[in-house]
Write a structure and sequence with these properties.
Chain A: This is Imidazole glycerol phosphate synthase subunit HisH. The complex is a heterodimer of chains A (about 200) and B (about 250). Chain A is an alpha/beta fold. Chain A has helices at about 15-20, 30-35, 50-60, 60-70, 80, 130, 185-195, and strands at about 1-5, 25-30, 40-45, 75, 85-90, 95, 105, 115-120, 120-125, 135-140, 145, 155-160, 160-170, 170-175. Chain A has one domain (about 1-195): Rossmann fold, CATH 3.40.50. In chain A, the strands form three sheets. Chain A has an eight-stranded mixed β-sheet, with helices on both faces. In chain A, strands 6-5-7-11 form a four-stranded mixed β-sheet, covered by helices on one side. In chain A, strands 8-10 form a two-stranded antiparallel sheet. In chain A, helix 1 links the parallel strand 1 (about 1-5) and strand 2. In chain A, about 50% of the residues are buried. By secondary structure, chain B is an alpha/beta fold. Chain B has a single domain (about 5-245), classed as Aldolase class I (TIM Barrel). The longest helix of chain B is centred in the N-terminal third of the chain and has 15 residues, at about 55-70. The relative contact order of chain B is 0.15. The chains are: A alpha/beta (about 200), B alpha/beta (about 250). The interface between A and B is medium-sized, with 35 and 32 residues.
Chain lengths: ~200, ~250
């Protein structure tokens, strides 16, 4: 059973259906016990970093999520990926889950913000598991980006600056784009995450 | 490099996709969810639903359509038309819309843009602007392009951006329905006035009209309705035409 963390930040119907279409059972929950029984944890999210962290704290999920990330395959999507880092600077500074070293800062580019639309993955690892996605388009919508060490980068995208697109530390993955909105490529990326962690 | 987006628009009235925007002789074309799914499979980069329902029942039906679309369509989708209040925005986002477009209500009450952006984020706050050439300016039109507000469209675009809009959906009332191509001068003027993505709309009759607007302006996306309906042209024909003209698109 895959558990999608429900903390009131954005609609997760598409994420749920995407995994269901891949043949997995999915639950959407903020119940710690249910999360502990899940095989995989998905942390979605749309909105601001600060609001998300506050919501997670209010539901007393912060420590539970940090603990789960040490035990189970864990995937953060969009804002959920950003929360994996130590600190965010959206609407003032706030602490993240600190699962992957790094910060979340406003994108510095000459291009338009938000970064909205289909952009191409550039695979940063020389890894057969990920090389097949080189050049594929996925759907981004964000104004802030992760700033982290290159060893955690699986793939990046170019938007006048290099933006981390897929990050990984051990069993914890993050995708800055929306795989559930990235058509067939997105489905294949979710499948890849499941294959690598199952 | 980020791809230029091709966006089919579905006009939805009382739960059905209809053809024609002039409210006369509307013809039903099919089920919105099925059509959106078909377009997304064909390579549409995004879908826009424009709710032109006249009744409360129709608008409630739209919420159900949004909910069903969210579980059947795996590209982003926007819902506009009939969005009057922050509660309407909330309802559509909760049902699963990625973005909500506001038009006349935002002109009447610009605070709606600010509130939506602060509560839900710029990324899901789309301001739709219907503009018409008046002398050497463009005016903002409301009520389906029939009422001249006298507001300068470029000033309004800037205000929408300043209030937190994440994107502008720009329709030229002059070229809409003419099928002779996008309004290049209006599009270029608005793109130059703001620093947020702009979607051009109104005037597509041929696939070549997309590469034309992408090559002649810095617009981020182009929208069309009628050429995609009834298979006049396919998404692939449009994208191929873009690729031939050197426009970076996501291949269909």
């Amino acid at each position: 059973m895959i558990a999608i963390v429900d903390y009131g930040m954005g609609n997760v119907a598409s994420v749920k259906t995407a995994f269901q279409n891949l043949g997995y059972q999915v639950t959407i929950t903020d119940d710690i016990e249910e999360l502990q029984h899940a095989s995989h944890i998905i942390l979605p999210g749309v909105g601001s970093f600060k609001a998300a962290v506050e919501e997670i704290r209010q539901r007393q999920l912060l420590e539970a999520l940090q603990q789960l990330a040490t035990e189970k395959p864990f995937l953060g999507i969009c804002l959920g990926m950003q929360l994996l880092f130590e600190r965010g600077y959206e609407n003032g500074e706030s602490d993240g889950l600190a699962i992957i070293p790094g910060t979340v800062e406003q994108i510095e580019t000459d291009y338009l913000l938000p970064h909205i639309g289909w952009n191409q993955l550039q695979v940063a690892l020389d890894d057969d598991e990920w090389n097949q996605f080189e050049g594929n388009h996925v759907y981004f919508v964000h104004t802030y980006q992760a700033v982290s060490e290159s060893k955690y980068l699986v793939a990046t995208t170019d938007y006048g600056t290099t933006i981390p697109a897929i990050v990984q530390k051990g069993n914890v993955y993050g995708m800055q784009f929306h795989p559930e909105k990235s058509s067939e490529v997105g489905v294949q990326l979710l499948k890849k995450f499941m294959e690598l962690t199952t | 490099m980020i791809a230029k987006r091709i966006i089919p628009c579905l006009d939805v009235k009382e739960g059905k996709v209809v053809k024609g925007t002039n409210f006369v002789g509307l013809r039903e074309l099919g089920d919105p969810v099925e059509m959106a799914a078909r377009y997304s499979e064909a390579g549409a980069d995004e879908i826009i639903f424009l709710d032109i329902s006249a009744t409360n029942e129709g608008r409630q039906t739209m919420v159900d359509i949004v909910r069903e679309t969210a579980t059947n369509v795996f590209v982003p989708f926007t819902v506009g038309g009939g969005v009057r209040s922050i509660d309407d925005v909330n309802r559509l986002l909760k049902a699963g819309a990625d973005k909500v477009g506001m038009n006349s209500a935002a002109v009447k009450n610009p605070e709606l843009i600010t509130e939506s952006s602060e509560r839900f984020g710029a990324q899901c706050t789309v301001v739709a602007i219907d503009a018409k050439r008046v002398g050497d300016k463009w005016h903002v039109m409301t009520h389906g392009g029939s009422k001249d507000t006298g507001i300068d469209a470029l000033e309004w675009a800037k205000e929408a951006e300043a209030r937190g809009a994440g994107e502008l959906l720009l329709t030229s009332v002059d070229t809409d329905g003419v099928k002779d191509g996008f309004d290049l001068s209006l599009t270029e003027a608005v793109v130059r006035a703001v620093r947020i993505p702009v979607i051009a709309s109104g005037g597509v009759g041929q696939p070549e009209h997309f590469p034309e607007v992408f090559n002649q302006t810095d617009v981020s996306a182009g929208l069309a309705a009628s050429i995609f309906h009834e298979n006049t042209f396919t998404m692939k024909q449009v994208k191929d035409s873009c690729i031939q003209q050197g426009v970076n698109v996501r291949e269909a």
